[in-house]
UniProtKB/TrEMBL annotation:
Enzyme class: transferase
Source organism: candidate division WOR-3 bacterium
A single cellular component GO annotation: NatA complex
GO molecular function: protein-N-terminal-alanine acetyltransferase activity
Protein purpose: Acetylates the N-terminal alanine of ribosomal protein bS18.
Name this polypeptide is given: [Ribosomal protein bS18]-alanine N-acetyltransferase
Family: Belongs to the acetyltransferase family. RimI subfamily.
């Protein structure tokens, strides 16, 4: 990971930067209210990767009943392939274990091979396909991992 990149907990004051990055990276971005609602939930957590005062990545997850749902993760294109997404995932997984969660899962577009390969490299496996998962009608793979 490049020097000068800081990973810290997401705060409400980060939402404009997070949402701007979300809109930059995804054709059908989450509404800003989704981030805000999740961040305010007692069963959710978010982290941001920051470089020179700008949000360059983020991750969010929720947990309940021993299950850890990674709901969103993104890294700005110019900072991809530097280990930032892996670091964000490891931080989430460590937190999950600390909260008694031993099972993690996420959804990923079936045509997002870069993300699928990243998750596979971190030990996630495709469990099944969820049809019409995304608002634009695209399907998702549900990928899962037993945390240790």
């Amino acid at each position: 990971m490049q020097r000068g990149i800081i990973i810290r907990r997401m705060e409400l004051s980060d939402l404009d930067g997070v949402y701007n990055l979300e809109r930059k990276l995804f054709p059908n971005p989450w509404p800003k209210s989704f981030f805000e609602t999740d961040l305010k939930s007692k069963n959710s957590i978010g982290f941001v990767a920051e470089y020179e005062g700008s949000i360059i990545g983020y991750s969010m997850a929720s947990y309940d009943d021993g299950k850890f749902h990674i709901t969103n993760i993104a890294v700005d294109r110019e900072f991809q392939r530097q280990g930032i997404a892996s670091k964000l995932m490891h931080i989430l997984e460590d937190l999950a274990l600390g909260r008694g969660c031993y099972y993690a899962y996420l959804e990923v577009r079936i045509d997002n091979s870069a993300a699928i390969n990243l998750y596979r490299s971190l030990g996630y496996e495709i469990a099944y396909k969820r049809n019409n998962y995304y608002i634009d009608g695209d399907d998702a793979y549900v990928m899962e991992k037993e945390l240790k």
